[in-house]
Amino acid sequence: MRSVGVAFVLAGALCAPVACDAPRPANPRLWTTFDVEALYAAGGHDTDAIATDAGLPGGVSLGSMLEPGTSNLLYVHQSWAEGYPTGYVTTEVWAHFDQIWVQPMYLLATGASGALKPVSDVDGHLHPIFSVGPGSAFYSPFWQVFYVGVPAGTADGALTSERQILDGHYPLYPTKGWVAPLTPSEQLAPDTTPLLPTGGTTSGKGWIDGAPISYLQFPSAPFSWNEDLTVVEVPIFHFVFLKDDGTLVAPDIPSVLGTGPLFSKTPPPVAMNNAATAAYSAYWRVYTVTVPPTARVFAPPNATDQMVKDFVAALQNAGIPTNLPGGGNYDPMFDGQSAADLADYLGRVAVNPDCFGDINMTDPHGGMCQYLDSQADIENYLGRGAIQRTDITVTCPLVSFMGKAVGP
Asked: Which three-class secondary structure state does DSSP give residue 322?
């Protein structure tokens, strides 16, 4: 890093006046829940955005991470995975980072190698020792757990910093990974909505540099890392629409979870019995998907349910058409259905929206609609030209899968 800094100094010293006016390289930036809470405290609003220069139109709104106010709730995003409803939360946003790294986290443990038992408090709670805090550009919530071999009878809290562990030359035993964002409050938790029940999180207290700190663990969220400790990213697809004035807009409609590198045909995760599973990555690279002008979001314009009406109005206010091309109409049977009744439809994007005219054709799991609700469908129906990589990566662990809460 020292040599890189020198290179920039020399470039600045030698450039001609015109060259010096060239745009500066993008500045890498990380936002955590600590940052979002501070922005709210300084008068920020849920519609204010971060990462606005990194390829996602409008950036990432504060309200898409933390609900405003003092509720300490993470916003739950509806999404699709292989055509099924899922929900995730966002705890970190990186802009202009090419990669992030897994970091070490420590648990005191006693016993012989191969039979180590973590040290806990009297209530059985673990208090991990974290190595990097949220104020560092090297922070990430992806930890490799190391058991620290300590003598029998060592009390919980006997060691509270990585420096004490390293200076003490304790034996270290690498184990599994944890997805555990550090948080400003132990009460931080996913929000709940009528359509997306949440679960599968554990909050607690740990240590960093001798001071207590809160964390939120997602025990069911997987991730992997390479030999150089780089966390492996997977694509998440956000839909963008071209407005009449030529600008792009990214509305708050369900995103699509990817399964692997673009056009790799990576199969979705499955359980041991070959059943669908929530074992999707917790670390994502944001890609935008430009929706064709003839495609439509499922949003019945004549609905009577207030939640559906609000959804339709939000699309219309964003300049996104909700009428069907060619003068077609939605099947009137949709009009009186509730948001809960339409939960498996609302927000899906179809490239052949004429199918919305017949309720029997709209079934996402056997109907005639060509929905963009999986990575394979986006790639097959739209091709490479519609998909653009952004400079945004995010921590987004699933909290619901197929409409059900994700548990440990």
From this structure: coil
Count of CB atoms within 10 A of residue 182's CB? 23
Cβ pair 349, 285 in contact under 8 A: no
Could you report the per-residue pLDDT of 20-70, keeping only the tens digit for each?
455 556 799 999 999 999 999 999 999 999 999 999 999 999 999 999 876
Which range, of 108-117, 140-149, 175-184, 268-277, averages the lowest pLDDT? 268-277
| Burial (Cβ within 10 Å: 0-12, 13-18, ≥19) of residue 261 | middle
Pick from 167, 218, 161, 168: nearest CA to 189: 218
The structure tokens listed for 275 are 């059943």
Kindly report the backbone phi and psi dihedral angles of residue 78, in degrees, each rounded to the nearest multiple of 5, phi listed first. -75, 145
Question: Which amino acid makes up residue 236?
Answer: I
Nearest to 221 by CA among 283, 144, 276: 283
Secondary structure of residue 57 in the 3-state scheme: coil
Separation between Cα atoms, residue 213 and residue 127, nearest integer Å: 10
